[in-house]
Amino acid sequence: MWPRSLNPALKDWNGRRVWLIGASSGIGAALAAALAAKGAMLALSSRREAALRGVVQPAAQPIILPFDVADPVAWEHAWTELNKHWEAPDLVVFCAADYHPQRSWEIDPEQARHTVETNLTSIYYGLHYVLPSMLKRGSGGLVLLASVAGYMGLPNATVYGPTKAALINLAELLYVDLRSRGLGVYLVNPGFVQTPLTAKNDFAMPSLQTPTQAANAIVAGLANGRFEISFPSHFTRPLKWASLLPYRLRFAALLQLLRLA
Ligand SMILES: NC(=O)c1ccc[n+]([C@@H]2O[C@H](COP(=O)([O-])OP(=O)(O)OC[C@H]3O[C@@H](n4cnc5c(N)ncnc54)[C@H](OP(=O)(O)O)[C@@H]3O)[C@@H](O)[C@H]2O)c1
């Protein structure tokens, strides 16, 4: 018998300890505000300390842990600092990302390295620190912010897209690895959301969501214990279906979609 939901349903946030990494703007900041309003205890990370301090009301008393996720030594310091407050988080949200729209003939190798380290390598640094204590306790969850750009190769996402495809793959294997050990793994694949990240796009973004809409969709998906949380579904579902087609049809569908966008 298949379970109704693949993950534990996260409905009661009161006192739940959430480490949100990439929380100073956009989706991460909106999610922090939504979870604080529901009574979660928050640790907030990104590089910009001043921005992190303005994300939720001081009354929520978030732990502010500024660091650069692309730096493995900084991860060690952040984890040591977090451990002064919490032995292990209940939920870790990997939300930090770097994005530079560029076509394949515009690659900047140094920028590409930085994007891969921020979006993908950093998750391995983080897992190295958070997993042992979460596994020891046998409960908790990991949330990976990937993207529909990971469903299939989309022009402009030359470096970003492959990092998000890798995160989808990683979330799948983490789920299989960790579910029997009591941990939930939640994969978030948003469509377009209006944030500093997408402000770099010079093309029309269909079905653009606000960060608050994105945060609400994520909270709803977590409450339903979904493995994949993707929104808005009228935009993301056709992309997902297109990604399942044989290549001949997939490329034709993609070119059609891009013409419509
Ligand atoms: N917006 C969209 O349409 C969209 C669609 C699909 C997926 N996503 C994903 O959703 C997540 C949030 O994106 P967003 O749109 O909300 O973008 P955003 O507003 O630019 O937020 C990115 C966050 O990552 C942090 N960050 C970036 N580099 C970092 C580093 N080296 N170390 C630590 N923190 C770092 C930023 O803070 P600092 O600058 O303070 O470090 C910021 O808090 C990302 O994973 C993104 O790929 C977004």
Protein topology:
Elements: E1 17-21, H1 26-37, E2 41-45, H2 49-53, E3 63-64, H3 72-83, E4 91-94, H4 109-137, E5 141-145, H5 160-178, E6 184-190, H6 211-223, E7 228-231, H7 233-243, H8 247-260
Helix pairs in contact: 1-6, 3-4, 4-5
The structure holds NADP nicotinamide-adenine-dinucleotide phosphate (NAP).
N-to-C span:
41 Å
How many DSSP helices? 8
Radius of gyration: 18 Å
Determine the CATH topology.
Rossmann fold
CATH architecture: 3-Layer(aba) Sandwich
Shape: globular
How many domain units? 1
Q: CATH H-level name... which superfamily?
A: NAD(P)-binding Rossmann-like Domain
Record field, number of beta strands: 7
Low-pLDDT regions: none
Helix amount = 40-55%
> Taking all residues together, what is the mean pLDDT?
95
